[in-house]
Write a structure and sequence with these properties.
The structure is a single chain. The protein is built from 17 helices and no strands. It is mostly helical. It is globular and about 65 Å long.
Length: 371
């Protein structure tokens, strides 16, 4: 009887801990973001070069021949043989839906990456862009396309390695008997500026206009032509990065208190900062590897979520998991349909959204920067 009572109390304790950090604002954000993703995804699959009605497209999304068929899921997620499907179902699931899934993963990764970088630097203006990760990936992409074209097959891996090397460079520059948030940001700006200049210089060495167009697509961020290969590439790294970010949320909260306070509570600040930065780089690299460099998502989404749910990092990470995909899916719908049949890179749309949003913040808030 006592064992059953103990189990009951433990279960009640878990429920109370969950209720402590889940509030109405977080639930509203998650539900609203989910509706945006669902509506945007259904809108995305309704249009394409193959003509079908909206009703036919939506019916194909929920076709039991896929939804309830393990063979179909095995084919899409692990590269097995695709079972025989209706033409509309095959087009929707094999061509159109992967773009939505990739947008979801990219949104998650960039939003959570930005949130982590903002805690590590204690600066709400930090992002993969500010800390040089995106610039390093972009330079690696251009080097591959322009100089080492034979390695184009490995472009996603090259992009990820470029981002990781850039951040290690930032960390090395910022190191002086340890690092500090200010030195990390300044080093990131320096590395980003230098790598950005090198990117621009490389365009002058590209003779093939096709190479230039491909490079521009990568460096501005684009989901055009994504398929299940990109989904399979991003999925495992996204899961790992999101789990590590959630597990590390307590450490992120401590970092916000300042180095002295975190150290007095027993934290090895440098090891934790470097480890969490590694998680942020992993998340950003998973995004860059499948969609190129999409700007502003990692900067504005954590700030928007923070304004709604507060700065507690469990709530913030969960909010970013929902709000990031909502912004990316909505932006990609705009990128694909705004100038139809011409498709523009989704990074252009996020930039057009992000710029005015930060102008609004500058007008609204007296001081921006430190969290």
């Amino acid at each position: 009887m006592s064992e059953a009572t103990g189990t009951s109390r433990e279960g009640a304790s878990v429920v109370r801990r969950v209720v402590d950090w889940v509030d109405s604002s977080l639930v509203t954000l998650c539900l609203g973001s989910t509706l945006v993703v669902l509506f945007g995804g259904l809108l995305q699959v309704s249009f394409g070069s193959f003509s079908m009605s909206i009703f036919e497209a939506w019916r194909a999304v929920f076709d039991p021949a896929v939804v309830l068929n393990p063979q179909a899921w095995n084919a899409f997620l692990f590269g097995g043989e695709i079972p025989e499907l209706h033409k509309q179902t095959l087009i929707v699931w094999n061509i159109r839906l992967p773009r939505v899934f990739v947008a979801i993963f990219v949104g998650m990764n960039l939003a959570v990456s930005g949130a982590i970088f903002q805690a590590v630097t204690r600066n709400e203006l930090a992002s993969p862009f500010i800390l040089g990760v995106s610039s390093g990936a972009g330079l690696a992409i251009l080097l591959t396309l322009v100089v080492f074209s034979g390695l184009s097959t490995f472009l996603p891996l090259v992009a990820s390695l470029g981002g990781a090397v850039a951040f290690l460079t930032v960390y090395a520059i910022a190191w002086k008997n340890g690092t500090s948030p200010v030195r990390l940001v300044l080093a990131g700006v320096i590395v980003g500026t230098v790598f950005g200049s090198l990117q621009t210089a490389l365009f002058f060495f590209a003779d093939d206009i096709g190479v230039v167009q491909s490079a521009i697509a990568w460096t501005t961020g684009s989901l055009t032509g994504t398929d299940w290969e990109q989904v399979r590439m991003a999925l495992p790294w996204t899961v790992v990065a999101m789990l590590l970010a959630f597990v590390g949320s307590r450490q992120l909260n401590l970092l916000l208190l300042g180095e002295n306070t975190a150290s007095s509570l027993g934290m090895d600040v440098e090891k934790v900062r470097f480890g969490l930065s590694g998680v942020a780089v992993l998340a950003a690299a998973a995004s860059i590897a499948v969609a190129g460099i999409v700007g502003f998502v990692g900067l504005i989404v954590p700030h928007m979520v923070r304004n709604i749910v507060g700065s507690e990092y469990k709530r913030l990470v969960v909010g970013c998991l929902f709000a990031g995909p909502a912004l990316m899916v909505a932006a990609d719908v705009g990128a694909r349909l705004a100038l139809s049949p011409v498709q523009i890179p989704v990074g252009i749309v996020t930039g057009l959204v992000g710029g005015p949003y930060f102008l609004y913040l500058m007008r609204k808030q007296d001081a921006m920067g430190d969290i």
